[in-house]
Amino acid sequence: MDTYTSLKKELLEINQKVNSLFPKAQSITGMADHTFGDWQKTCSGINKQIADEIIRIAVVGPIKSGKSTFTNALFKGDYFKRGAGVVTSIVTRARRGETLKAKLLFKSWIEINSDIRQALVMFPALSRRSENDGFDIRRKKERTDLQKAIDALSAEQLITKGVLNAGSMQLSSYLKGYERIKEIVSADNVVQQYQDDRFTEYRAFVGDETLAVYLKDVQLEINSGVFDKDIEIADCQGSDAPNPLHIAMIQDYLLLTHFITYVISSRTGLREADIKFLSMIKKMGIMDNIMFVVNCDFSEHESIDDFNALIKKVEEELSLIKPEPEIYSFSALYNLFKEQRSNLSPKDSSRLDQWERERELAAFSDRESSRFKESLHHKLTRERYSLLLKNHLERLDVIATGLDNWISINQNILSKDAGSANQIIEKLKHHQGSMNQMKSVIKNTLDGANQKIEQKLRADIDRFFDVRTGNILKNIIEFIRGYQISYHDHEENLKQSGFSSTLYLIFQEFKHALDSYMTESVNPEIVRFIRQQEAWIGEHLNSIAGPYELMVQDALTEYSNLMDSFGVGSLQKRPQKINLPDMDSIKSMIGLSLPPAVASLRYTARMQTEAVVRFGFYTVVKIFKRLIRKPVQSKNEGGILALKDGVLQMKRETERSIVYLFKDYQENLKFQYIFKLVEAVSNKLYDALLDRFQAYVADLSNIVDIVSNKKIDKQRTSELLKEMELISQEISQRITAVREEIDTTDQ
């Protein structure tokens, strides 16, 4: 990271030098110019963007693959809770800081109660009350009633697809953690910090589901490792987590990341769950910047040949998803133990000694670790950072060139007599009027283009989410209607627990399947669509800018020739091509983010479950009346028929709720994201073109007063301009040097 850090520092110093010229120019009597206000605003923006720019790396992989150990090794210490396994239920982010600190952001009471009410949908006995009265966990009676209701559930009702179902597990976690958390949580989101000696206390929250369920965000500040403070590394939940909500949370973070490291355990190799998750990433269109780490467990491999055979197999399987995958193979735990050698327990120290005696495997792991670090360094400094720095550098170069030009022109005019100076100014006014007119044309063109772009995007988004013409809602509805239930498997539960409890069990299974479908198929398709729209916005606006960039260049060339005809040397040079900042940078500048993937699982919030349960009750009565008139095929025939009608109503209610949810999402996407992005990209493009104009449309008429006014110290003015010229030359040289350094690191 040294290269990037030094280049960034140099860029900030150049920006400061450029800024120092404005007060000098404004101190010259009569030469203050509104132009400098625009340039100063640009410089302030560059300074803030460089300071705020965060590069994000997501560490992803299945449960128990060693993600936390790998991340700890990167930071050279035991900071992330290791072995948390399935209970790792929140993304844990880390950056370099001055001190060791953990910041925990807790949900508000409103958010907690909202979670609980959604989990209570179709819950026997309590679902109707949660809808009508609004469940509040702070009320003791409601906690007691809920605990009794959970205790009354049979084992079958608590398990979905072989694991504890997410709804009942979430309810149970909230209840179990309440007493320990009630003094922390409040009406607003609360941040709790654990610093220095108390740092490790944060692990109790992320490693315990009954506490983690109350968390909204976890961020660590770590005062060790090789990373710059502008790099964020996140330890994510297991990619094979059984809870679709956890997968949606990973998706939300992946959309913010610039690089992904996928960790695979050498104990298991690549599994079906890995293939499924990686296929999902591919659908999202974020597979380009991914590295794979085969985390070696030395105790699992008898020889280096055995390990190499596994690596070859993993590579072959990954190639089916990503051609020529970038794979590194080493032991994260071995690396971590080496970093902590002096602080290891006797048991771990003995393990390290044992591994170091396995010279061939240890040497292989060391070589691969070095190769991984070099590659990561390359990606950060040469791929991502060089792009960011280049964008800022070119904006500074435009301003520096403009200042150079402004200084040169004023120096030349100052050397003329008042008559000659006035003659030059008068002839420039016509040219500057044309350039101001061109600015208006560009602004009006971009505004008009924005309207047309928004019209097209509006139509595309409406078509994409349309229930008849689009695939998204059509496919969800087909999934809901086509979901099959084996009613025979529920006969015993219907007999033992009754209609409501059995319907709840079916709903939990149905919801788990639907949530999985949403995270695995629907969310990636939405992300892919949005990324296509983003790319089109950038390409279209760039295509509009192209002709105007040529017009600007022609106007500036004409201006330069005009100045030459007056015998006034112009330093105007052919500038670099205008390049928009990438979409991620623009979104970061204006604080724009996609509607969260987690939102797609919130459809239960609008389900009118009372109608479903009431419908089921009336159906039971109706069916039993009907059965009185004909022979009974089985004891449970009436209950099964009622259950089928109840499920039909449940599906209809789910379908209605999802259509409503996606209509809301569709409008949010348009007005809170896409249209704002169009405006931001257009403004950035206009600002970039405007910077080119500033030095050539400046009001130079005041210099005539300086030339003719004997009360003004022309000698002092000339000295100030000379001082500014020297600083400007230094700036130009430093910009050239930084550009060459970036170009060198890009090779």
TrEMBL record:
Domain Dynamin N-terminal stretches: 57-283
Superkingdom, taxonomy of origin: Bacteria
Coiled coil: none
InterPro entries: Dynamin_N, P-loop_NTPase
Protein name per the record: Dynamin family protein
Origin species: Candidatus Desulfatibia vada
